[in-house]
């Protein structure tokens, strides 16, 4: 029985890994299409119908590019940087519930690689580790622009992780759990957490932009000032790992937002669907609903990138320390007061 569970989990992890890579790959195509739509252009349209083969062409280009290694004493760290960025973006998906459950060959298959009681802490631990990919790569590049990028990225991550953690505290106070599966299961129908924690969601959303280095928080790359930041000395697939890592992180971040605040795989009428069409049909539809929510947030990331200009660095720090952190603390206090009143009078 243990071997069957191991095989089952291995297949599930492989599928999630493949989906994450596929979403990251086609997010590059979607990014260019969304940018073209917002700027009244056509976008990729040569490689295949509607340019759908463009990500494959871009990947082939990265594979075939000349491998460049700068004159640095830290060649191992130079290689380790993009590897950390890519791997940290992928392993976050291990604790995310991608659906409820499926009945297959008399077995109940849980659509989650591993269900741990402190999944939220795991997510934050991995997120805090991902910045080391940029820090190590920027420092090992032996380039002043890359080093400046590493310093910016580290201070930005520290600043916005505080506000993000505080926003989650209010959600944990309300739900009473750190388990992502329990948080998802508690949002049946339209009982979404965003209706109870709108301020916490807004703070978490802004911090997600900073954590994934997306515009207007891409001060680590900032081509106008730092050429390409930590990307400057990289080429071939090392460069590709950084780019893929960013898009994979955007996909995972969108999944976390959907699970925490927008009902995860739940949708109105899910119980009715399970009774009339079967549990499998209802839960497969739940998976589709979850990925629809994820795609919406990915589109939102791209929409913001091509709409809002990049912040100055002092504006970035002021927003994190003087606005988001006090607002998150106030949200915790307000949530605590509401919980006390609700317990006492309701």
Please indicate the count of domains: 1
Q: Write down the overall geometry.
A: globular
Number of strands: 2
Cα gyration radius (Å)? 21 Å
Strand content: under 5%
* Helix proportion: 55-70%
Structural class: mainly alpha
Report the order of strands and helices: HHHEEHHHHHHHHH
- Distance, first to last CA: 47 Å
| Spatial strand arrangement across the major sheet | 1-2
The number of helical segments is: 12
Largest sheet: 2 strands, antiparallel
Mean of residue pLDDT values: 86
In the predicted model, the low-confidence regions spanning at least 5 consecutive residues are none
Question: Can you walk me through this structure?
Answer:
There is one protein chain. This protein has a two-stranded antiparallel sheet with strand order 1-2. It is an all-alpha fold. It has helices spanning 2-38, 54-64, 75-91, 119-140, 144-175, 180-185, 198-211, 223-226, 236-261, 270-277, 279-305, 313-345, and strands spanning 101-104, 107-110. The protein has twelve helices and two strands; from the N terminus they run αααββααααααααα. A hairpin with a 2-residue loop joins β1 and β2 (107-110). It has one domain. The protein starts with a helix and ends with a helix.
Brief digest:
The protein has about 350 residues and is mainly alpha-helical. The protein has twelve helices and two strands, in the order αααββααααααααα.
Keywords for this entry:
68% helix; 346 residues; 12 helices; single chain; two-stranded antiparallel sheet; mainly alpha; 2 strands
